[in-house]
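so my prof wants the structure for this chain in the tokens format not the other one, which i didnt know existed until like an hour ago. anyway here's the sequence
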Amino acid sequence: MTQDPLDVDSEEYVTLATAMKRTSRSRRTIGRWVKSGAVRVLDLGDVRGYHLSDLLDAEAQAHANATRVRTQ
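here's what i got, hopefully its the right format
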């Protein structure tokens, strides 16, 4: 049985493919979230993990911003 390299004690990290599926966002969008500091990343050499709760928070914030009504 192979152990998941992203299996961390108290924090849940996911691969980029899983992050894209869970948030329905592109690789570029997730990269922008990481660059802005909205999503923490765990870098284990050739494996990179994205903090799941950060991803979900960033996705919810993006949704809230997209549905906000503009007043003039």
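also thought this was worth mentioning. Helices lie at 16-23, 27-36, 52-67.
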